[in-house]
Design brief:
single chain; about 300 residues; mainly alpha; Na+/H+ antiporter like fold; 14 helices
Length: about 300
Amino acid sequence: MNNLLLLILCFVAGMLLRHFRRMPDNAPATLNSFIIHVSLPALTLLYIHSLRLSADMLLTGLMAWLLFGLSALFFITLGRWLHWSRSTTGALILVGGLGNTSFFGLPMVEAFYGQAGLGTAIIADQLGSFFALSVLGISVAGIYSSGRPSARAILKRIALFPPFISLCIALLLIPLDYAPWFTTLLKRLGDTLAPLALLSVGLQLRLGHIAEYKRDLAIGLGFKLVLAPALLCLLYVPLLGASGQTIQVTLFEAAMPPMITAAIVAGEHDLNPPLANLMVAVGLLLSFATLTAWWWLLRAV
């Protein structure tokens, strides 16, 4: 409960600081850069090092790829029926198919499942959401806009992403023991992720244009927050027979609101930026309630 209160406090603080203009315009970019280059790599080095890979971890990594596939199938089919523009369809595939498993997901997993769930959450983010964004997300953005990403550009984006570099290092270091001082250092740096991430999200929150996009927004968030995690739950639990905390955290991550970075990619490719940003902002607000409901439901898994 204390962790959840901390997240809510930092989120509200971010909104208030933006409203009263107490932070510079580039504050979210600065905070996000620190998270990507310091906080998230530190957590990756700390928790991946102690993981023992299993079949459940494979299902964790596959989750984001399955989610993106469901998103593409759902929004392409619905887009044809509702006569959506290509920019709207592309935007909804991106933000509806990629969850905020890092900046928002890691703090929420820590709040509901404790630090024991962070290793699984990092696998879901690094081997799942990040790869899906870098490969499928960038490809879809190119297809639905005028550009076409090259294989070299995709590989370069993956190879130079700091958390991915730290993931590779952490996997190589699994046979070695960390010195106590190094473990303490990584933990202290990793602890900065939760408050800074929610502060950054609060600073970026924008709620304009809701009336104009209310139908598409409702469809997009209904899929991302309710339908998609329900379909994955049916696949993982009754069909595959998966259970335990690893699967609980995996499905909890599947229920995260839309990824901030996906909305940024949509904006860069001119894929209905107002709708993409609304999906992130409204989805984040609603997810405090929907994630609590999913946590309660997943206790039986």
